[in-house]
Amino acid sequence: MIIIKGGTCVQPDGLRRADVALEGDRIAKIAANIEPGQGDQAVDAAGCWVFPGFIDAHTHLQCWTGMDWTADTFETGTRAAACGGTTTIVDYATQDRGMTLDEALREWHSRADGTCTANYAFHMAIADWSDATRAELPAMREAGITSFKTYFAYDHLRLNDAQTLEVLEALKPLGGVLCVHCENGDLVNELQRRTLARGITGPEGHAISRPPVVEAEAVSRLLYLAHLAGDAPVNVVHLSTKLGLEAVRAARARGQKNIFVETCPQYLVMDETRYLEEGEDGFAGAKYVTSPPLRSAENARALCEAVLGGEVDSIATDHCSFNLHGQKDRVRDDFTRIPNGGPGIEHRPVVMATALGDQLGPAGLCRLLSEGPAKVFGLWPRKGRLAEGADADICVWDPRAAWTITAAGQHQAVDYTPYEGMDVTGLAAWVFINGELAVRDGEPVGSKPGRYVAR
């Protein structure tokens, strides 16, 4: 057995000083004192928090976006995730138009299977809604897919309102939750055209063409559609605005049930002034071209208050990495052609622990980074909690470690980090995945214990 000794366990019912014994791929015992026997390995966790492994429920690894391949593969992305303390990701397998859901799922398995340090599950993004696609949903459920995604933006992916309603109605009896990218695609297209016509072509045009109302309108529309479908479960992904938050609050105030909310660190600790960064070649602002875009400081404050107030169910990354040099900087005279997405899979836990850890405490961090996503996406109670019989996915977190985030020191396969130069506190000192050591002091040990997680 592996025995984690002397740490403070972050459990659903509170903090507890206890030892944790791992046997095989399960937590075998949690007790005040567990003495190692012959052949057991003891890990000194004194002064550390012992968390259930963190879960990042929104990633895009080894993905073709219509413009380029992402910089991170499943191999590099899950290794980087584990180095930050994340033991499970949920990636978006995506059905292109003309493709079946089964074909999409098999393609994503071919990219991920056998390559991963962290565990992986899949959402299924639906871009081609038809009777044939509807007929495939039970098979997806049998394959361990409990969460799906649709888009209100991007012409090659989005569904109309009637189709979205039908998806919601079809998923409800299967116990599925629908994640939705909430931006009004028609408004985005028109505002992009107007912004370019004004001669605004640089990265700052990205935020100008996607104002908060574009998100808020789509959030409100989604929630009304979900209510029309009998309060079908929905997850508002990457919420970025105060207006969108107000739409969620209004629906909850009406008594609507089954509304889940996700936000990302970038919307809590950065703002739209980043688009004006020039860097060495005058184009550094392209690093922050993600959708939705970074917002004003007022929006960031409102979302932080919502996180601290318990209105947000999970914090994910929307990790979709492209290199600044050779990918994002390839087209400089049209912000709409900058590959859209950014990295974050490695640094999510330490950014949140540094930015909001004092207010949230370890229990609050656990709720947002592990327990919340586990409950929303069908991983609970196997994952997301420290308990006897649960999966042996563990992050031993040293809250005393102080260091600085740099691209040169990261494990993500991308040439920048949006958190460059950020002084942070906290480190994944020991990370166990399925009972196997994967990371020591923030560095990978070379193992690849990650498995597909059917839900």
Features:
455 residues; 8-stranded parallel beta sheet; 17 strands; globular
> In angstroms, what separates the terminal alpha carbons?
27 Å
What series of H and E elements makes up the topology?
A: EEEEEEHEHEHEHEHHHEHEHHEHHEEEE
Rounded to an integer in angstroms, the radius of gyration calculated over CA atoms is 21 Å
**Low-confidence regions:** none
Helical stretch tally: 12
Mean pLDDT: 98
Provide the helix percentage. Answer: 25-40%
Tell me about the largest β-sheet: 9 strands, mixed
The total strand number stands at 17
Task: Describe the secondary structure blueprint for this structure.
Layout: E1 2-11, E2 14-23, E3 26-31, E4 41-44, E5 49-52, E6 54-59, H1 74-83, E7 86-94, H2 101-112, E8 119-125, H3 131-142, E9 147-151, H4 161-171, E10 177-181, H5 185-197, H6 204-208, H7 212-228, E11 234-236, H8 242-253, E12 259-263, H9 266-269, H10 297-308, E13 314-315, H11 324-328, H12 348-376, E14 394-404, E15 423-433, E16 436-440, E17 443-444
Parallel strand pairs: 1-4, 1-5, 6-7, 7-8, 8-9, 9-10, 10-11, 11-12, 12-13
Antiparallel strand pairs: 1-2, 2-3, 5-14, 14-15, 15-16, 16-17
Helix pairs in contact: 4-7, 7-8
Quick description:
The chain is α/β, with parallel strands linked by helices.
Description:
- The chain is of the alpha/beta class.
- Strands 1, 2, 3, 4, 5, 14, 15, 16 and 17 form a 9-stranded mixed beta sheet that branches. Strands 6-7-8-9-10-11-12-13 form an 8-stranded parallel beta sheet.
- A hairpin with a 2-residue loop joins strand 1 and strand 2.
- It is globular.
